[in-house]
Amino acid sequence: MSTDPYKTLGLTKDASAADIKKAHRKLVRTSHPDLHPDDKGAEARFKAVSAAYDLLKDPDTRARFDAGEIDAQGAERPQRQYYRDYADAPDNVYQQRRGFGQDTDPGDIFAEILRNRAAGAGGFDFGGTGRSAAGPDARYRLEVPFLDAVRGAETTITLPGGASLAVKIPRGTQDGQTLRLRGKGSPGFGGGPAGDALITVVVQDHPDFRREGDDILLTLPVSFDDAILGAKVTVPTIDGPVGLTIPPGASSGRVLRLRGRGVAGKGRPVGDQRVELKIVVPKDPDPELRDLLTAWRKTHAASMKGTAA
User: What are the DSSP calls for 154-186, one per residue?
Assistant: First the structure.
């Protein structure tokens, strides 16, 4: 898979923030290891998609990548300077600290760097300067029940080594959203800080509720007589059952709105719950109902003919 985050998401550099988000949501669904257990490459694609989205979703990070300041993993790119640029400098670390002269084989220089890294000297420790580097981020995937995502919850995930990591699911968490736990990633180099844990949330479907932005959608079965005469019924919401008035003469497909009964995301207005009515007709109407509707049809059929004339 390409190391270019734009190509990984199937986008070009002129993609909008909305394009990036849409592509990520689609690819999470098509590359999720649990959703494609027979696809051996799914996990690798999922990790690559998550990494690309983490880089491009933040405008500042995206701008730095586009400018060539950081690479596709978010690491700082070294300045384009070579050994010859340092050869005549008064503080030439190669000459003064390691005894490397101008005729030194560059391979020896890099071998020294690698030896320092292997000895735990802090990654890019040029001549014992003691430079350190942050550890790499660790990526995880977490399936979350629908109600835990919209209401907020706390859970734990088990790491590959068997340890547990506590995770707080903020209220209003969306499918495909990545949570960042500072300092919970891999250890740093040379005393540097640990990386972060990046947890991509996959929200499970709910048998009754659906989510659209911060609104909750619910389809409510309504009996024939309640639709005709109107009624007061109890409907479920994400925070518990509430009362709802069905107006007389309601049609199937009509949407009623419960204000403030949707998702309360941080820093956003609370959404609503939209209830779509679905009239349910009895499978075997009793004879009395059949007779009533037969008589109604006769009288109203004549009325409708008169109206049409």
Answer: EEEEE-TTS-EEEEEE-TTPPTT-EEEETT-SS
| Helical packing angle, 59-66 and 42-56, nearest 10° | 100
Q: Are 222 and 250 in contact (CB under 8 A)?
A: yes
Select from 159, 185, 146 the least CA-distant residue to 54. 185
The pair phi, psi for residue 69, each rounded to 5°, is -80, -30
Q: Is pLDDT above 80 for 154?
A: yes
Nearest Cα to Cα of residue 179 among 136, 147, 141:
141
**What confidence tens digit (pLDDT) does each residue in 240-271 have?**
999 999 999 999 999 999 999 999 977 889 99
Give the pair of three-digit tokens for residue 277: 């009515």
Instruction: Name the residue ranges covered by the structural domains of the chain.
Output: 83-128, 132-204, 209-295
| CATH 3.20.20.80, applies to 132-204 | no
In terms of DSSP H, where are the helices of 120-240?
146-151, 224-229
Instruction: Determine whether domain 209-295 maps to CATH 3.20.20.70.
Output: no
pTM of the model: 0.54
